[in-house]
Give the backbone structure.
Amino acid sequence: MKEYMYIALSAIFINNFVLARFLGLCPFIGVSKNLDAAVGMGFAVTFVMTIASAVTWLLQTYLLTPEFIVFGTTVNLQFMQTVTYILVIATLVQLVEMFLNRFSPSLYQALGIYLPLITTNCAILGVALINVKDFGSSFMKSSFNGFCAGIGFTVAIILMASIRERLDRAPVPAIFKGAPAAFVASGLLALIFSAFGSLSLQ
């Protein structure tokens, strides 16, 4: 239980993929203009991260890592890792797109181009690759880390959307409105989250 608590705290706060590892900044900045869209994006990314972590672990363990004998030659598919992971992520994103388009057209329209861009979201690919390195021997830990990383992304983008909605109503100088204020706010958030690095779970 303590080990899973450490994984959760690490993925959500200490090693947050957006604010500590600086991955997935494109949807983080692009979708955080609106709180409702940010929540939707957070849930979509969490779903994709969790399922991708589980599926890529299975593929890594039973397809990519083992060596096969083909026509008397030993073959290893490890070189296909990145391509395989991207195909898995792209398939999951297509499922999310179809679901949202069918059951929540307004959210589908609000997310716009950033929804298909989840396919190339480096945070999701980063989670899958880090899982192989850190939790390659455990399916449960790998999947749980993917879920917690998605929660961390959701926390970050919701905080950012809340700040940006307040900034839009604040008397901010015109030169700082929009992207400049967003980058300053994200830098301050990253600075705040860096304080979690001093946490000790011993």
In short: The chain has one domain: 2-193.
